[in-house]
Design brief:
Chain lengths: ~425, ~300
């Protein structure tokens, strides 16, 4: 027991450096070359992190193989929690899958270290086919390195039964911050005795804190990706708005939401208003309060702002079978493949104009609100070592909203630490 | 005359055995070098390096050590880890009591109790942590329900600073009991019956026997337990990680040293700085173990 634990640390580091020593500097041919033709044969690997999307991905592979019967695609899926740990080890050992999923927080890390194939020459790939912000998210120094797969934006989920009981009209358009706060307060006041909250609070970054800071006129990361925006007046304003609702008792405090997740409070009918993304549809369609749920556009502050994020399909720069991998990657980016994942209800497809099937899968949730939001949404903030400052957010967001009276001090601490991480990026 | 030739004979003896001893020891030595010496050496080397996320190293001099001195998370993590270790060490007296009850002569169902006390050791740490997280839940947990019966409004056990450390420590203490009980039971069974008989003849009662015979003769086992419990305590990670979860407002104030190591190595991708933290843990454990060996002469009775 003792050796196992003490080795955990040392062996991990030693293992990584051994791998590094083995990897060496292999020559990378940056050229993509011509894709394989329908008569060519070959075998490639494809790695994803979501078991729930495996059937849809398999349907896409099957459709691809109707055109390329001799190319074998071996799909593997790893749990999201360990996916990027595994990918980093694969990259260090020069063993990346030929084609794999990537996300915004990790994209630049891989692109800037030359791990991803430049897709500028990829046949049939046109960045204009996808929402502009998503294309930008997967562009590094002017070059596209991943093909957008799906996207999510943020909107206001609501429980019309709870709003009705508190005497509030359900939102039709976009509420202001004040309308959101007042409606939340009214629900908590009326139904608080039943342990029902106006909104379930929480510290969700992408769904709650990022858009509010942007709406207050602030930023998370500046354009040059060197400065954190968490100590700016706009950030303090957004944090204070959230903190204020917690202090008034309108929303539960962060200690409570650590034990009782906001999404669980909302999906069990214990909260009336919940600002979150379209990824919640999968959870909420099985919720006991499903019939009461609706979706309205995101609330707005001084500025309109929403955040868009989505998965990308990337190809290893060191793929050993680039012709077959490019043929598969162009197919993944095609309208046909996006229609398949939409119809399977797997995710909101990124290819412009293919959302219908996904929206129609759950008509009562009016998922078109999320698609409309994509037009004006801002890019998900990410830098080279995003996971480093995401962890700082995870540590300090809850402290900022902990109600200990030192909101600004904790926000400055977060900004200072994040600036340190950004300064270390190459 | 023959004893004069003893040394040469020994030399001849080694020659006769040839290289066989080396051959038999080699698998072990290769393992020791590969899994103990090499990791330690490479951690020391890495502590002077700056890493890119894909393992590339450049020499960074004392940079990582300077970072350590300026890192405000470190002092709190040292304090948290020390408090945790101190509380877990309190489990040893409890284990002494439990072990002596379990090895009592004529105890019915003693096997059953032994299995019961050993259960925590064979349960998955993460599963254990999740169950305790529910037990400590502020709204629905058993602990606060029990407190409410006597009119106490229980705290947020796992999401408030200090309370969370206390909760994690209690679970750490609970899960360290089985091993301690096993080792102490073995120690108890090694105490000769005659000593108790002699003590009885001298008119010692049960308590006197316990204090004058049992405890002194158990001190070698207790000393061994203190060493390994302190080492385990300073390696607090999995319980903390699983019991506290993410987005926990108390986490910034409850981090342990190994937790900091984990976040530097695997979240921040800074293996150089993580190596420095690993060496700091090694140094602290080394000093504590050394101190315990120094002090043991005063209180540990061998025979």
């Amino acid at each position: 027991m003792i050796p196992r634990r003490s080795l955990f640390g040392a062996a991990g580091i030693a293992g990584a450096s051994l791998l590094a020593a083995c990897a060496g500097e292999s020559d990378v041919d940056p050229a993509l070359g011509a894709p394989a033709g329908p008569q060519d044969s070959g075998a490639i690997t494809f790695q994803i992190w979501d078991k729930a999307q495996e059937p849809a991905m398999q349907q896409i592979i099957d459709a691809f193989r109707e055109q390329y019967p001799d190319i074998t695609v071996t799909m593997s899926s790893a749990a999201f929690a360990t996916y990027f740990e595994r990918l980093r080890i694969q990259a260090t050992g020069d063993d990346l899958p030929d084609v794999f999923w990537i996300n915004g927080p990790n994209f630049e890390l891989y692109a800037s270290y030359g791990m991803l194939q430049d897709l500028g020459e990829l046949e049939g790939f046109d960045p204009a086919n996808y929402p502009l912000n998503l294309t930008e998210l997967y562009t590094y120094q002017g070059t596209p390195y991943a093909s957008p797969k799906d996207f999510d934006t943020i909107a206001l989920w609501y429980n019309r039964d709870l709003l009705h009981r508190a005497g509030i009209d359900e939102p039709t358009g976009s509420w202001s911050w004040e309308e959101y706060r007042d409606a939340s307060a009214a629900v908590t006041r009326t139904l608080g005795a039943e342990q029902i909250w106006g909104n379930p609070g929480g510290v969700a970054n992408q769904a709650y804190i990022y858009p509010l800071i942007m709406q207050a006129g602030g930023f998370i990361l500046d354009e040059e990706k060197t400065v954190s925006g968490y100590d700016s007046p706009a950030a303090i304003e957004a944090f204070s708005f959230l903190d204020g609702m917690i202090r008034e008792g309108t929303a539960p405090d962060v200690r409570y939401t650590t034990e009782n997740k906001p999404e669980d409070l909302f999906s069990s009918g214990r909260a009336a208003l919940y600002q979150s993304g379209n990824w919640q549809a999968a959870l909420l369609k099985d919720s006991p309060v499903r019939e009461h749920l609706g979706v309205a556009p995101l609330i707005h502050g001084a500025e309109e702002a929403n955040v868009i994020h989505g998965i990308g399909y990337a190809m290893s720069a060191r793929s050993r079978n680039k012709p077959a991998a490019s043929a598969f990657l162009s197919f993944l980016g095609s309208e046909q493949a996006h229609r398949i994942q939409g119809a399977a209800g797997a995710a909101n497809p990124a290819f412009v104009g293919t959302n219908d099937a996904y929206i129609e899968a759950l008509p009562e949730f009016s998922l078109d609100v999320f698609v409309d939001a994509a037009e004006t949404a801002r890019q998900y903030p990410a830098s080279q070592n995003t996971s480093a400052w995401l962890q700082l957010e995870e540590l300090l967001f809850p402290k900022i909203l902990s109600g200990d009276g030192e909101l600004e001090k904790h926000a400055q601490d977060l900004a200072a630490r994040m600036n340190g991480v950004l300064a270390d990026e190459s | 005359m023959s004893h004069d030739t003893a040394p040469p004979r020994r030399r001849r003896g080694r020659g006769r055995d040839g290289y066989w001893p080396i051959v038999f020891l080699a698998p072990l030595m290769i393992g020791v070098v590969a899994f103990y010496f090499w990791p330690i050496l490479s951690t020391v080397l890495n502590s002077f390096a700056s890493f890119d996320p894909f393992g590339g190293r450049t020499f960074a001099g004392l940079e990582n050590y300077r970072t350590l001195l300026g890192d405000s998370f470190i002092p709190r993590a040292v304090l948290n880890t020390a408090v945790y270790t101190a509380i877990v060490l309190l489990g040893i007296p409890i284990a002494v009591g439990v072990a002596s009850l379990l090895t009592q002569k004529g105890l019915r169902f003693s096997r059953f109790y032994q299995v019961l006390f050993f259960l925590p050791a064979v349960s998955m740490p993460v599963a254990v942590a999740l169950v305790w997280r529910m037990i400590f839940n502020q709204e629905f947990g058993v602990v606060n329900w029990a407190l409410s019966l006597v009119g106490i409004d229980g705290p947020y056990w796992v999401t408030a600073p200090w309370w969370s450390l206390l909760a994690v420590s209690v679970v750490g203490l609970w899960s360290s009991l089985p091993l301690a009980v096993i080792i102490l039971s073995a120690g108890l069974q090694g105490i000769p019956r005659e000593l108790y008989e002699a003590a009885q003849l001298d008119g010692a009662g049960a308590l006197r026997q316990f204090l004058s015979v049992t405890v002194p003769l158990l001190t070698p086992s207790i000393f061994f337990l203190m060493i390994i419990t302190a080492i385990n305590g300073f390696q607090l990670f999995d319980l903390l990680f699983a019991m506290m979860g993410q987005a926990n407002p108390a986490m910034a104030d409850t981090q342990s040293l190994v937790y900091l190591f984990y976040s530097e190595a695997f979240r921040q991708h800074d293996q150089g700085y993580a190596s420095v933290i690993a060496l700091l843990i090694l140094a602290i454990i080394g000093v504590i173990t050394l101190l315990q060996f120094r002090v043991q002469k005063r209180w540990v009775h061998y025979d």
